[in-house]
Amino acid sequence: IYSNDHLKSQKHKLASRASLQSGKVSNFFSKLITDKNDFALAAPEATFAYHTVIHNQSFRSMTCTSDLIRQLLNDKQFTCAKTKTREIIVNVIRPGLKSYFCSQDSSPKILVDFFKNDKALLYMKFIQSMLRLFNIYIQKIEGEHISAFKLIDILNSLINNLENKKNEHFINSEIENIIKVLEEEGCSIKKEFDTGSQIFFDLCIKYIQKWTMPNQTLLTELDWLNLTKKHTVTWQNAKNTLNFLSELVLLNEDDYFDEFMSFLNIFQEKFYFIGTKMVTNIKLFKEKDVSISNLAAVVDFAFCLPGSSTSIERVFSLMTSTWTDVRNQMGVTTVESCLITKTYGLSCMKFHDEIIKNQSFLKNVHSTQKYTMKAED
User: Fold this and answer.
1) How does 131-157 read in b/e, with b if 16+ C-beta sit within 10 Å?
2) What is the pTM of this model?
3) Which one of 196, 213, 230 terminates a domain?
4) Does residue 42 or residue 160 have the better pLDDT?
5) Which of 76, 116, 215, 225 is such that its CA lies 20 to 30 A from the CA of 294?
């Protein structure tokens, strides 16, 4: 009687419902024995990993691909995202191909020498760490609204970073462990690697300094407009800017002097101006109907200088990756359509979520009219 009452109780019903809806703990552990179903899943995962590398796609793209396969094809077991794809390439496919290349008589000598060189992994790891550093700064440079002033600050920060690594003979723990293993195996590499890394840092620093040198004169003359150093906001520096821009910007020197002195008086009284944007301060003057047309012209010129041409180059880069030697039969309309699609900005999953609600769009996708209404290439 007690058992029947318990089975009918609300507590038991809730517990039963919860057990049916909850996953088993065993689902989070890999099986010790691999069966044919596991092999059937491993084959497409390895193939997609191989496909990613062969077609020069990023590992990150596999995160999107994996999500799409699970949702659109209802294959919930396919989980070959970025990390798994990389591990399959590095720890499964690479060793197999490495053995294959080394065993072939006709393999390229450069590959065989690389695979057999005990130092290869060490230098590859060093290059990888440096590429990661440069990529961080490239992303900063390619950010939106980067002025020439900001660009110089970013590059100076990179130079300081490289100089610090050089002066401290910095290597990360992974590289340090590789050196330790090589030294224990009798390969004297530490001194050679240190010398090579020092040369690398020197070359990088000299290259960046040489690359920024053409802009240094211009930015030095305009540096006081940053308002980051109070002692630089002087009439002498403002006059130097006037002389420097005399052939580029039409200015009235008398009015420019009066406008600058008006600004200087306020700037010296209001310490909170330090570090604020000059453009913001110019707007405040305009709101109070203070005539600063000449000073505003200098500010407009200084802050309209782009830090880089990445926004334009990005379009050409997209075009280059789209219209390649292999894909050279596409017409102008096709290339234009690909560029517009690439710059749309939605992830694949969000794109799917958007179009699934748009019946008109889906009707056009399904209809055969898409073949007759296309523009001529």
Assistant:
1) eeeeeeeeebeeeeebbbbbbbbbbee
2) 0.58
3) 213
4) 160
5) 215
Q: Is 294 exposed, middle or buried (0-12, 13-18, 19+ CB in 10 A)?
A: buried
| Spatial CA neighbour of 201 closest among 154, 168, 153 | 168
Q: Which residues contact 376 (CB under 8 A, 6 or more apart)?
A: 331, 333
Q: Residue 323 has which token pair?
A: 């219209």
pLDDT tens track for 194-218: 999 999 999 999 998 887 766 666 6
The pLDDT tens digits for 51-66 are: 888 877 888 888 888 8
Paired residues of 306 in beta bridges: 147
Same domain, 292 and 315: no
Q: Are 255 and 292 in contact (CB under 8 A)?
A: no
Q: What are phi and psi of 77, to 5 degrees?
A: -85, -15
Q: Are the beta carbons of 299 and 279 closer than 8 angstroms?
A: yes
Q: Which domain holds residue 313?
A: 309-371
Find, among 226, 222, 252, the residue nearest to 240 by Cα.
222
Distance in angstroms (rounded) separating the CA atoms of residues 310 and 314: 6
Domain count, the chain: 3
Residue 365: in which H helix or E strand, if any?
helix 359-366
Tell the residue number behind the tokens 């396919």, with chain if given. 78
346 in any annotated domain: yes
Q: Is residue 227 part of a domain?
A: yes
Torsion angle of alpha carbons 195, 197, 200, 202, nearest 10°?
A: -70
* Amino acid 275: pLDDT: 43
